[in-house]
Amino acid sequence: MDLQAQLEELKKSTQAQLQAIKAENAKELQDLRVKVLGKKGSLTELLKGLKDLPNELRPVVGKQVNEVRDVLTKAFEEQGKILAAAKIQAQLESESLDVTLPGRKISVGNRHVLSQVTEEIEDIFLGMGFQVVDGYEVEQDYYNFERMNLPKDHPARDMQDTFYISEDILLRTHTSPVQARTLDKHDFSKGPLKMISPGRVFRRDTDDATHSHQFHQIEGLVVGKNISMGDLKGTLEMISKKMFGEDRKIRLRPSYFPFTEPSVEVDVSCFKCGGKGCNVCKKTGWIEILGAGMVHPRVLEMAGVDSEEYSGFAFGLGQERIAMLRYGINDIRGFYQGDSRFTEQFK
Hints:
About 40% of the residues lie in helices and about 20% in strands. It is of the alpha+beta class.
């Protein structure tokens, strides 16, 4: 077969092979291109035969070689486009999107249950004319204990063993230091002091279902002229009804706190059984919710307040305890573990 016939045969066979290549075998296209048009390809090998042709045939055959190269180059390009389009179409068909389907719901976060309880309590007290005051979590021993009538050798400190950074710097065990600092700055010529101080507190404790080495408190303080235990009871009744229902009643039991005198534990009538006795109230009909009392005269005197002219009451409640009672939560650790299955229950 002469060179011209070989060129024609190469063109036809290559075109036939191109038509047979399918989209899923696109690599065959590149392999065939190298085999035919590459430096060591079939067309290059035929070009070597030009030197053996008579001089008068070389221009004719050379022109034919260029035409075959151009035709095949264009054929490879067109087949490449066809294969690429076929691949995209196959992908579209296999990964089709049904625009009539409803969209996927995007999960939206929510406020942590402790934040919700804290903000609810703050709103109640703001409506009663109280101010909300923040304080330091890292506190001085002087404000955390001594200003709360707990000198360094007082045995009641054992109930609030905490984490010490130095001999005089510690993580606060209650939010009461905020009350002492606010008492120092308050101008009683402008009226009584009415404040709450929400925040996180720390105590050395065992992590179990009902205790944690850190938890949250909201302490309240009212100091003014002619403040009585009756004012304290009225305030606590308001809080209990707002938090647990209008039918709730409270009772005060004698207790001891170094910074109040007299001191009381405050119980609320069980909101589950109505006082008949159940597993929530341990068959007593009452649930302990907070501690309170009249501000100890010595606490007032250390703040430079005349205890003969002024009196006051203070109380402290825990957001975790309120939330556990209201929502039937039986393990305090759930508040801190960051499990979305827990937090999503309180949207």
